[in-house]
Write a structure and sequence with these properties.
By secondary structure, this protein is mainly beta. 4% of the residues lie in helices and 60% in strands. The chain has one helix at 2-15; strands at residues 26-36, 53-65, 68-81, 84-89, 95-99, 104-118, 122-133, 136-147, 154-167, 184-200, 203-216, 224-227, 232-235, 241-255, 260-271, 276-288, 292-303, 331-344, 347-359, 376-387. The radius of gyration is 22 Å and the shape is globular.
């Protein structure tokens, strides 16, 4: 899921456009390739392993429809490789990552239609979505309202969303796990509200608050955790409820003398699994020769660990919870991106690349034991868009 989230973030960024004129029909195609660095033999107890590789194709159409703006996003992804399975203590006490083996091969199809209604001072947008892969099916929907009072230097935005996910592990009856679900589901409800301020002719500040409540099966059926006093593994098991809060701040400043814009984004995340995370991103959007745009950016991330997480356990917890998933571990990450766009009449061409590395060294607080399953990846993308 981390791989899919990272690739989705890259493709979403590559498809983002400053807007569409009311009379334009716009089509876009984006190809993205995501490749995780192989697990080193040092972290795998002398055994290396190939990790995730994902190819993604995304198509988008945006068109005016009877006074509204309609859109359709369609995504097809193919994924293969190995993923972290469980962690054992090595001879020297350091954690050793055991991988799933290169048996994961799956495909995902996602479709999301939406429509936006424009009013004099406001816009109301709605969307629904459906995603399907070998063992997973998801439905989602949401609505957003933007309102800008006449003559005011600020605007408001708010939205709600709901998702329902159904999981049926493909190896539910054959995997040699102590406990394996045949099927399970979860749902999530989210809401957010924000306000944008025009500080001056060249500067805009946006702040927002968000809340998400997830309920149901929140564990990972493909992961295990090692219990030392049992000399055996147990299934990954997490609380069935999770509340998360976010605070976002975005600053946009246009530097007219250079024909460029500085973007500064900060996000604070906190949930009742005791994970607190900070994200800071800086980007420089430089326009040159009228039709070229170059955007280098750097993103830093740091999080604390879930209260029930451990690389491995001396004994089973009294509450039965157990997870060695690196996504719940304490770590930091650094990401470097470069995006290039070129406009040729009604065509727009784009290329993008990202280099990401997760490490205890980038964490805000000291990390006692680094999870050996942390990810490093390279992602590249190519985009083609046309306006009618």
């Amino acid at each position: 899921m981390k791989a899919k989230s990272a690739l989705q973030a890259l493709t979403t960024a590559a498809l983002a456009l400053p807007g569409i004129a009311a009379a334009e029909v716009q089509t876009e195609y984006l190809f993205a390739h995501y490749q995780e660095a192989d697990l080193s033999a040092g972290k795998g107890g002398g055994v290396g392993s190939e990790r995730y590789e994902i190819n993604s194709h995304r198509f988008r159409v945006v068109s005016p429809i009877a006074g509204t703006i309609g859109s359709v996003n369609f995504t097809y992804e193919s994924l293969s490789g190995a993923s972290p399975w469980f962690i054992t203590p090595g001879a020297d006490g350091r954690p050793v990552q055991v991988m799933s083996g290169a048996s994961i091969r799956e495909e995902r199809v996602d479709i999301e239609p939406g429509i936006a209604f424009k009013f004099e001072d406001a816009q109301v947008s709605t969307s629904i979505g459906y995603s399907k892969e070998d063992d997973y099916e998801a439905f989602n929907g949401g609505a957003e309202v933007e309102f800008t009072p006449k003559g005011e230097a600020h605007s408001y935005v708010g939205g709600i969303g709901y998702s329902y996910d159904r999981l049926e592990p493909t190896d539910a009856r054959v995997a040699p796990y102590e406990y394996r679900i045949d099927k399970a589901d979860k749902d999530a409800l989210s809401a957010y509200a924000g306000v944008s301020f025009i500080l001056d002719a060249q500067t805009v500040l946006q702040t927002s608050l968000g809340y998400t409540l997830s309920d149901g099966y929140l564990s990972d059926p493909y992961k295990l955790a090692w219990i030392t006093d049992q000399a055996n593994t147990v299934s990954d098991w997490r609380p069935g409820r999770r509340q998360a809060f976010t605070i976002n701040a975005r600053l946009r400043h246009y530097v007219s003398t250079l024909g460029a814009a500085l973007h500064v984004d900060y996000r604070l995340y906190d949930d009742d699994w005791q994970i607190t995370a900070h994200t800071l991103e800086l980007a420089w959007n430089q326009v040159f020769a009228d039709s070229w745009r170059l955007t280098p950016s750097i993103r830093w991330y740091s999080q604390s660990q879930a209260y029930f997480y451990a690389p491995f356990y001396a004994a089973m917890r009294s509450d039965g919870l157990a997870s060695s998933d690196y996504r719940l571990s304490p770590y930091g990450a650094l990401s470097l991106r470069l995006d290039l766009r070129k406009v040729i009449n009604r065509w727009e061409l784009g290329l993008g690349a990202e280099r990401y590395e997760a490490s205890a060294d980038y964490a805000l607080e000291n990390v006692g034991v680094e999870n050996p399953g942390l990810v490093e990846f390279i992602a590249v993308s190519a985009k083609l868009a046309y306006k009618f």
